[in-house]
Amino acid sequence: MEYIEGDILTREGFKKGYLGFNLKESNSRFIRSIDEGFGRPPRKASYKGIIIPSMINMHTHIGDTFIRLRKAPLPRNLEELVAPPKGLKYRLLKEASNEEIQRGIEYGLKEMKENGVSHFCDFRENSIQGITLLKQVLSNNRNIKSIILGRPDDLVYDKKEVEEILDNSDGIGVSSLRDWNYDELSKIASHTHRRGKIFAIHASEAEREDIDRILSLKPDIFIHMVYATIEDLMKVKEKGVPIVVCPRSNMFFNLIPNLEYFHHTGITLMVGTDNGMLNSFNLLEELEIIYKTGLWSLEEVFQMVTYIPRKVLNLNDYISGSTLPASLVVMDPEEFDIKFIVERGIICL
């Protein structure tokens, strides 16, 4: 039996204690004992620090990671780079081979696993082809899972295409309302809801958008909301819709998310790294930005990438149950650095 000791992040907050797990299990490493009191483990702990469940990256575009690997300069104008269908990103995606795109995806998965991420919520471009490319790479990667949100190839509702996307994904993730004809987008949202799948949308990223029209689509998740007003955020909170913030991505485009507004309204926040072409998939770099504002405690910041997204996505936490496979991260209490990762089936130092 191996032990790790320190401040364990539970759903109720940090509790001092230790976790024990068996490294000799043939299929998985299961948590065998949990002590949330002030007792010490039966023998010296292998690692000490802040212990959290593996992290959930709630917003990625892993398909464009290959562009970062090209090391090409990118425009810092949001519309020039990422607006569908003519943004540079979409032109490069159409020009790239499947092999190059998949090498980028593989690289992104490696980054996430090395940084304690066990699940990521990915916005998949290129319709069913994009979903297929990701699934092919995932089939060769253990210990990381994707919540796949597809999107149509064009900015129109095609019933057959949307049905095929929903048959092969966890839902739909679309760009901002300003990119779409409202009626077309409304049909996509309604179709997604009828299938009981996730409908997520970028909102108020480059400019303030009509929050009432967006809410009428009944989204399950908002992305960004950089230009949202206090009044907008209060309406979102009343509907109980969480927001995913991606500070580093926003900063690339000289956009500053109004974290004070988010804190003031008490809205449910989660965190993502956004486009793989812009930044690494290191969630800790996003958390450090949020924590250094002084608006949230360390406990609250870590909740944004552990228990909150698990509740939204209905996932296990891999800490609270003794029959669950161990999937956790030990953090250095002084810095945003990982000391030790226990994945489901792999021990990473």
Short description:
This protein has helices at residues 65-69, 78-82, 88-95, 98-114, 127-138, 159-167, 182-194, 211-215, 230-239, 247-252, 259-265, 283-291, 298-303, 307-313; strands at 2-10, 13-21, 31-35, 47-53, 55-61, 117-124, 145-150, 171-174, 198-203, 221-224, 243-245, 269-271, 274-275, 328-331, 338-343, 346-348.
Helices and strands in order, then pairings?
Elements: E1 2-10, E2 13-21, E3 31-35, E4 47-53, E5 55-61, H1 65-69, H2 78-82, H3 88-95, H4 98-114, E6 117-124, H5 127-138, E7 145-150, H6 159-167, E8 171-174, H7 182-194, E9 198-203, H8 211-215, E10 221-224, H9 230-239, E11 243-245, H10 247-252, H11 259-265, E12 269-271, E13 274-275, H12 283-291, H13 298-303, H14 307-313, E14 328-331, E15 338-343, E16 346-348
Parallel strand pairs: 1-4, 5-6, 5-13, 6-7, 7-8, 8-9, 9-10, 10-11, 11-12
Antiparallel strand pairs: 1-2, 2-3, 4-14, 14-15, 15-16
Helix pairs in contact: 4-5, 9-11
